[in-house]
Specification:
The protein is mostly helical and 418 residues long. The protein has helices at 15-46, 49-76, 79-102, 108-132, 142-170, 173-183, 185-193, 207-219, 222-238, 244-251, 255-279, 286-306, 310-338, 344-373, 375-396, 399-402. Helix 1 (15-46) runs antiparallel to helix 2, helix 2 crosses helix 8 and helix 5 (142-170) packs antiparallel against helix 13 (310-338). The chain is globular, with a radius of gyration of 20 Å.
Length: 418
Amino acid sequence: MSAPRRNALQTLRHRDFRMLWIADIIAILGSQIQNVAIIWHVFALTGDAFQLGLQGLFRFVPVLFFGLYGGVIADRRDRRTILVVTHILLMATTAVLMGATALDAVSMPLIYAVTFMASAVNAFAGPARQAIIPALVPREEIAGAATVLNLAMQTAQFGGPALGGIIIGTVGLTAAYAVGTVTFGAVIIAALLITVRERIVIESANGLTAVIDGLKFLWTTPILLAVMSLDFIATFFAASITLMPIFAEQILAMGPNGLGLLLSAPAVGAVAGSLVMSLAPIPRCPGLGIVLAILAYGACIIGFGASSMFWLSLLFLAGSGAADAISMAMRHSIRNLVTPAAYRGRIAAAHTTFARGGPQLGEVRSGWMASLYGAQAAVALGGVATVIGCLLMARLVPSLLHYRTDPVEVPEEEAVPA
């Protein structure tokens, strides 16, 4: 008889996990404020949809080149140290934009350079942050920890864009960058104070060998490959964040405050979806749940692209956020449960490459399509492609629909020990 299925919020009783969870909320809040400032800054400087979309390319290239190696570093080095160093660097990159904005010395090359550097740093910070979590909670609570972390992210993404829009509209871009700079310090403090009960060091001849070893594991674990591919499909075709200034200013006529609300709306739904996933038992058929959630996500993106009413647009965006949060919680649960400890960093890095590469390349696609056919057509057609891509993936990998998991009964050799 299996043990009772746990409420995910119970993972917060662990001090070290709770500290990092709170720090993540603060840091992601600041990161979201910074992101709003950057896209509004680009729109103010250029007014060009393609330039907005090009931001995605400068975010993706570092992920492509450094993402998997960042996973190797996370498996070889102390993950707390990685978090401290990377977040100091993130503070520095944001401070550069803050100073340049205060001196009225911002240019598009500078914004692109800072975007590139921040993305490169995150290629190392992301795998370390994800890989350290299973060492902070017992093995049977790993799935719940992933769900609660998703709740933290969505909560910060709910407040960050709205707060960013208010700061930009009332105080200015310099203040928005200043807030972003300070908030990265929360992760630095948490990383210095937590105690990690486990240290896994991989034994490989060199970084390339370790990367190849990680890719072999991913390729021979179909459920992981299918889940990451679905994530890429959805985020590539449905990406529309960098077009939000166009929707806020030209289609819905709401200005920077409206931009903040549009960017916050998905997170409002995501918080609701994350709360549901946190309070409910971990689903026994997460693969099927992922497919259904992504279909709902695509449908909401179609609705948003077709809408010209502000509140209806917010409703569709909130729905897309709820669907994405539900899908994300189940994706993270599967990844953490089936990945052995020695591969955590590299699989987290592969996940980051898929999860960040999809939307960042997708922003280039949406910016290009918007410059040709308009922002609404670019978004709606992306939603249609998301639905079609999800259905094709479900048909090509039928085992995804039938995949079952129980976080308590996962075999020892397949689970992540704590």
